Amino acid sequence: MSDGEHIRGEKLELLAAGALPEPEAAAIQAHVCDCADCGTNLAEARGIAALLGFAVKQDRAAGTVKAELMARIRANRESDERNAWPRKVLHEPEAMPRESKAGISWWTWALSAAALVLAVVSIGLSWQNRRIAGELTKERQAAERMVQDREQIEKYVGVLAAPDTITVKLSGTGETKKMSGTVKFNAKVGMVLYAADLPKLPAHKSYQMWLVPTDGAPISVGLLGPGGRAWGNMWTGDVPANTAAKGFVVTVEAVGGVAEPTGPEVLQGSE
Amino acid sequence: MTPHGTTGETTTDWSLLARIGRKDEEALSALYDRYGGLVFSETKRILHDTGAAEEILQDLFFQVWRMPEKFDPAKGSLAGWLLVSARNRAISKLRRSNGASEELDEKGVAFHVNVESHAAQNLIADKVRAVMTNLPENQREALECAYFGGMTHSEIADKTGEPLVAVKTGICSAMEALKRVVR
After folding, report:
1. Chains A, B: CB pairs < 8 Å
2. pTM of the model
3. Most C-beta atoms within 10 A of its C-beta, which of A37, A186, A235, B7?
4. ipTM of this model?
């Protein structure tokens, strides 16, 4: 491998050309580290091999490569400058004589003030973030409510327009003979929409709508008034889907409604 | 070279490196314009992969930006170092190694040709191509397989069917022929 103590020129040329297998290349490089002459000869051989780079057909990298490189070095430079600044500030006081304490103090105060301003700004931004987040949550909830309302309205309109929705006219009896009401009922979806012209009740009383099924006990549809579900001038309620209705009744019950009709009937109607 | 670090109209590598040492971005930009094409072309020739070649190109110049003081024109050559380092990195990538390539000492390439202008580069390119064209086919192929293909002499012998000793001799003869370019 070597000529006396030195590596033969041919070996160095083969290494520079990249033709030596890894173990042999590593052995030569280890020798070169400690041998200035061989180091010089290897550098010469590498210089010759480097000429091959000129034999290649010249091409250019995309312009973005240089732009990225320049951005990278700019970021690196800014990072270095940021890192260098505090070190200087921290090291200076140790090197400065006691007479220069006023200077240190000035910087300390300036930095403290800057830190305080930053802290206040941070708190302010944090508070603003929370406020904006809260507003966003409210807006989101409002939007969700609007979507739900729209879906409900579409459902009501769908029921009202459905060909299998029936209309039941309600009328009063006895003392309530002049009162009237209307029920729109779709058995398939179990939805009832109703309206009635009824006098105001005492605060402890409520009107309650009932569906009278063809079989079984009356089913509460809902209240007309406080506690009921209003949709414009109408009230709405749900009953089990595919319930066959024989008729509808409105009774006067305790406020909030009851499980089964107990009060006087003020309106009734049948299909 | 003049005292202001220029050769004729061209700023020397040494002058640019000194400015890079003072974090002058324009100096790195000028150095990139000077050698970026050479480095990229060589790396692409080895890898046949534009993206990978661009990655090596950017990393090498970033290294120059980080450590310009390591390049001493009196002891080595920036152009030579860039070309050989780019070649080593590309070969390392070609062999799908873990990315660790031979870390070339900044003084490890003695490149005795001034290629600080594109005109000078074109002149050298013409000379190198002329030498390569005039080489016997087996010598040229062996040298290119080693330098651009990352093949060892044994692998080249297997590929070409030439005896191992002929491959070694051929590579050395081709290197000797290249020396004429710098004489």
Report:
1. 165
2. 0.56
3. A235
4. 0.89
